[in-house]
Amino acid sequence: MNVVRGGFDAVDRDARATATLLDRCAASGDSVVRVWRPPKHVAFGRRDATRDGYADVREHVSDAGYAVRERAVGGRAVVHTGTTVSIAWIAPAAERRFAIPERYDRLRSWVQGALRGTHAEVSEGEPPNSWCPGDHSLMIDGKVCGVAQRVTTDCALTAAILIVQDVAEIARLTSRIYDGLDLSFDPATVDGVRDHDATLSPKTVISRLESEIRHNDDRGKHVSEVIDP
């Protein structure tokens, strides 16, 4: 399974990089994991775009200096400050070793393993009224990681966002967004791994994740490459 690094400043181009990996998986049947730092933007879910107040919220986000992207799937808005770390694991949907629950568990285990031995070890769960609430989150004092999954005919995409730093900024903007969409949110639930271990940066977190994924995969060589969609 290849581990792919690299991102782009333009949000649309960065999203196309993951789409390219999905196409490669569908054509070849090979699994791949992308670990990277997405550009500064807010990713809205499909349900967000149908709520009253969405147009005003989009305008506020743009005025705050953030690009806007609408995901093709559900979930709630997620703020990327340019220091968050994302993981996208793309695998053949028919791969017998992993069904939907096992894919969630495996991705979470990579994050847990990458942070093991630091002062930012995570556990499963999330506080009430967290950002982009879900059943497969990871937390320290507050939520640091959200995990989601999308399955197509050919491939399964299991993805995570991990907050490293900029907790106050993420909490502030998320609060404004969720208030504007009339969604429950407690800004105190936002947490970041660097708040618990000052040695952790986006670069070191990505390196630890890559090492953890390589250490735990049992299917041959791993090739790191820069994506060019």
Provide keyphrases for this structure.
BPL_LPL_catalytic; 7-stranded mixed sheet; BPL/LPL catalytic domain-containing protein; aa-tRNA-synth_II/BPL/LPL; BirA Bifunctional Protein, domain 2; single chain
Describe this structure in words.
The mean pLDDT is 94. This protein is 32% helix and 21% strand. The two termini are 19 Å apart. It is globular and about 45 Å long. The strands form two sheets. A seven-stranded mixed beta sheet has the order 1-2-6-10-9-8-7, with helices on both faces. Helix 3 packs across helix 5. It is of the alpha+beta class and 229 residues long. The chain has a single domain (2-216), classed as BirA Bifunctional Protein, domain 2. This is BPL/LPL catalytic domain-containing protein.
Topology:
Blueprint lengths: L1 E4 L5 H18 L3 E5 L4 E4 L9 H10 L3 E4 L7 E3 L4 E8 L7 H16 L7 E2 L13 E2 L3 E9 L3 E8 L4 H14 L21 H15 L13
Parallel strand pairs: 1-2, 3-4
Antiparallel strand pairs: 2-6, 3-5, 6-10, 7-8, 8-9, 9-10
Helix pairs in contact: 2-4, 3-5
The order of strands across the largest sheet is: 1-2-6-10-9-8-7
Structural class: alpha+beta
Largest sheet: 7 strands, mixed
Order of helices and strands: EHEEHEEEHEEEEHH
* Separate helix tally: 5
CATH fold assignment: BirA Bifunctional Protein, domain 2
CATH homologous superfamily assignment: Bira Bifunctional Protein, Domain 2
Overall spatial form? globular
Question: What percent of residues adopt helix (DSSP H or I)?
Answer: 25-40%
CATH architecture label name = 2-Layer Sandwich
InterPro entries: aa-tRNA-synth_II/BPL/LPL (IPR045864), BPL_LPL_catalytic (IPR004143)
Organism: Halopenitus persicus
Domain BPL/LPL catalytic: 21-171
Protein name: BPL/LPL catalytic domain-containing protein
